[in-house]
Amino acid sequence: MPMEIAYNDLGNGQPLIFLHGFCESKEMWKAFEEAFSPFYRVLCPDLPGFGESRWYEEEVSLEQVAVMFEEWMEELNLEKPILIGHSLGGYVGLALAELMGERLGGLGLFHSTAFADDEEKRGVRNRTLTFVEKHGVEKFVTSFVPSLFPDYRREELQDKIDYVLRLALKTSYPGLMAYTKAMRDRKERLEVLKSFRSPKMMIAGQVDAAIKLEDSRKHEAFVDFYFELPETGHMGMFEREEKTIEVVGKFLGRYCRPSIISTEANRSGEI
Questions:
Q1: For residue 244, which of 152, 111, 147 has the smallest C-alpha distance?
Q2: Which stretches make up the AB hydrolase-1 domain (predicted)?
């Protein structure tokens, strides 16, 4: 079906796309827009079914979403866009890498993975579908969002949690259900990541409850730039805002254009 994608568009230069995750929206990238729009054309779209991009169908696949975004990029005449995707946004980014190859100028997986769901995770998705069908979006997201942050930091991060929750409450019922199924049924794309020839980055949280750290580390050999955030869960852009902006800037500066941030990074968390 035809899809109108809502998006923010700031700055000039090489396109840099930030793609949000499940039950999120483009507003989550405000600090990144401010940091990178002086150097890039920063675009932050809403995935169909989230934010201001509506989705009314019962089913969607990541491959369909990738085609929608390829068409959106073509409409905007975006050449060699660099795409950084959080969680679900990274899954869509990998589907785009498979579809577009080196027409993408770079790919960043931000608390994401090239692996498919394992049996345990598929069970979680199925329970989510049952719960939301019975209780609705609001009851689900009010329990889901806090779980993305480390339990021992939730009091410290309460303002951030409240902000993410406000974004999540805008999620449509069709979007939530369709993407839960799409994530559950997605295929593994580790070979896509391995063969993708443009610059690649992964950011992992050392206490991420949604993406296992041992799985993230299995990607390290296949990306150009790998970084782990200590004492960080699934929402590093909020838990470690300044650090993650610096890490993304380092990736862009070292691999995608002349250096913006010239400090050295290593896996242990020092930049």
A1: 111
A2: 15-112
139, two tokens: 């009851």
Q: In this structure, what token pair is assigned to residue 101?
A: 């190859």
Report the sign of the C-alpha dihedral through residues 10, 13, 15, 17, in that order: negative
pLDDT cut 90: percent of the chain above it: 89
CA distance 145 to 148: 6
Helix (H, G, I), strand (E, B) or coil at 82: strand
Residues 143-200 pLDDT 10s? 999 999 999 999 999 999 999 999 999 999 999 999 999 999 999 999 999 999 999 9
Residues 6+ apart with CB under 8 A from 250: 225, 261, 263, 265, 271
> Is residue 201 within a helix (H) or strand (E), and if so which, with residue range?
strand 200-205
Location of structure tokens 């839960």: 180
With a CB cutoff of 8 Å and minimum separation 6, the contacts of 23 are 50, 141, 144, 145, 167, 168, 171, 176
Output the CA–CA distances (angstroms, integers) from residue 47 to 166, 191, 214, in the order listed.
17, 25, 28
Quote the CA–CA distance of 224 and 98 in Å, as a whole number. 18
Domains and their CATH numbers in the chain:
7-256 (3.40.50.1820)
Q: Do 203 and 244 meet the contact criterion of CB atoms below 8 Å apart?
A: yes
pTM > 0.90: yes or no: yes
DSSP-derived letter for residue 28 is G
Q: Are strands 82-86 and 106-110 parallel, antiparallel or unpaired?
A: parallel
